[in-house]
Amino acid sequence: MVLQFTKMHGAANDFVMLDDREGTVPWQDYVLMSLLAARRTGVGCEGIILIQKSDRADFRMRFLNPDGTEVDMCGNGARCAAWFAHKIGAAPRAMTMETSCGLLDAEILGDCNVKVWMPEPTARSYGMVIHVDGRPIEGDYINTGVPHFVIRADSPETLDVMALGRAIRLHPAFAPEGVNVDFVAQRDADHLSIRTYERGVEAESGACGTGAVAAAITAVEAHAGTLPMSVRTGGGFILGVDADWRGNRCTGLTLSGPVKEVYQGAIDLSLLGNDLANVE
């Protein structure tokens, strides 16, 4: 089977985009999807996004991690999905998409700028302390469509995000599903810098939209931050997070920022399958 695909990135968070409105993509074959997402032997991406038909929205966004598993939400992925869906004629400039965490609205603000209304955050636990290698680490737990543990750090750029992020991602406190780990510096009341270790990717992400939202919410609700918030990603791009402030909580959250089409291509999935014979 030959798949036509588009490679995109949202603030350096990169995705393989697939038009699956005819329902022909074998997305439930997680091994095949993981081979497609592999950096060295496939197209390479931090997530595979399928645009599918929906009976209650303009389209359905289905998101797969690089290991082929499905997750409920990806903020930058939703922004890329909105742009791609509009390009292929699946949605107008202002649209509603179906996701595994509910219906989300999005709007194309310009040729390379997309805003998405994020799901309401849940499961807040601020000032949570866990122990890693015998030392306490304090952070803020929140679910912004997927779970995040936000750790405040003076200099995230100096941290070993791979080692510490993985240790926290696998910590028993977050079992069984694990957690995304965000290392955040508050530069000003309305400006954050962030680096994210992303579960499923099992590495540092170039950017994480749900992580940017998690960082902004925790900064505003627990650390005297102000809205709207600018969040500089590990890749150097700026994401904007805004919200309404009601009852001492952030609600009606939006995530805005750049998206870009990188290239288009076609891939024969049978060639990817041949790699399985060489893997022990």
Integer tally of domains: 2
The N- to C-terminal Cα distance equals 25 Å
Helical content (DSSP H or I, runs of 4+)? 10-25%
Number of helices: 5
What would you say the CATH architecture of the largest domain is? Roll
Residue stretches low in confidence (pLDDT < 50, at least 5 long) are none
How does the major sheet shape up? 18 strands, mixed
Shape: globular
Q: How many beta-strand elements?
A: 18
Q: Kindly state the mean pLDDT as a whole number?
A: 95
The structural class is alpha+beta
Précis, in short:
This protein is an alpha+beta fold and 280 residues long. Helix content is 18%, strand content 45%.
Give an overview in words:
- There is one protein chain.
- By secondary structure, this protein is α+β, with helices and mostly antiparallel strands.
- It has 2 domains: 2-112 and 260-278, Diaminopimelate Epimerase, Chain A, domain 1 (Roll), CATH 3.10.310; 122-258, Diaminopimelate Epimerase, Chain A, domain 1 (Roll).
- The chain is 18% helix and 45% strand.
- The chain has 5 helices and 18 strands.
- The protein has an 18-stranded mixed β-sheet that branches.
- It is globular, with a radius of gyration of 18 Å.
- The model has no long low-confidence stretch (mean pLDDT 95).
